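To: structure desk
From: M.T.
Subject: fold request, one chain
Message: Could you run this one when you get a chance? Sequence is below, nothing fancy, just the single chain.
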Amino acid sequence: MHGPVSSGWLLVALCAATGAYCLLRMRSHVVEQRRAAGGEALMGFGMAVMAVPAAVFTPPAWTWPAYAVVFGAAGLHALWAARTGARHLHHLIGAGAMVYMAVTMAASTGQGPGHGHGGSGIPLLTGILLLYFVMYVLATGVRLVPAAAVTGGGRGAGWGDRPELARACRLSMGIAMVAMLLTM
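Reply: Done. Structure tokens follow.
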């Protein structure tokens, strides 16, 4: 990532913690929550690995095409799931953004996100993705506050069934995506 190493590590920690919580959410009794949590765990861990500062680890050249394939497959899965409901479109856009970042960085530097010298990517597409994720973060943040008040903070619910924590995870991944897109 561009910028100080400490901010890169904070992004890694945020995304890894989010991915870990999403793994816990996969134990939910609600099938739809389990399915969504699996995709969100993949996204969280993928973003954590992508955000490791270049000063610490420079991934091999094959890493970014592998990222593109993995998140391309996740995008196809989200596209297939979108036929049952529009709520899966966000996962499709997130997977597409990950493919875009991996392909852009592989093409521009051969090394990965933030490892280049900036100016990479298609400015219009980067701007559209930034706008989408900023709007997503704002909308999710607004919905987060009422969830805790309405549900009583999730008392009595299992770890996988707490809507306010699921929204907080989605919010943190949205914020992380904005941070990563800003480095493009």
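Reply (cont.): The first helix runs from residue 5 to 25. Let me know if you need anything else for the meeting.
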